[in-house]
Amino acid sequence: MHKNARLTPKGRQVMLARLQAAQHQIDVAQAMGISLTTVKKWVRRYWAEGAAGLLDRSSRPARCRYSQMSSAMTLPPGSSSSIAAYGPRPRSTARRRANPGIE
Q1: FRET partner for 52 with CA separation of 20 to 30 A, picked from 41, 65, 72, 95?
Q2: Contacts by residues 38-41 (CB-CB < 8 Å, ≥ 24 positions apart)
């Protein structure tokens, strides 16, 4: 959890206790200094997962679309690295020679 977090797991339990005491969601949100969307998010997690849904989660993605090549992997002879394909392409020198006024 980062230092500016509004809700800790204990604060989420307090929020749910207020809601179970029949306070309206918007009133709980204003009293705790959070948005109504945040209140609804934690209520939804509590309904789906129980008390375990109130715990902090990792923000690390479950999977990565582009995985890095292992250092043990080698490229076949004559192939170039896929990293070199990214970025702007160099301008053709043949075009510069044909039109010397254009750069």
Answers
A1: 65
A2: 38/6, 38/7, 39/15
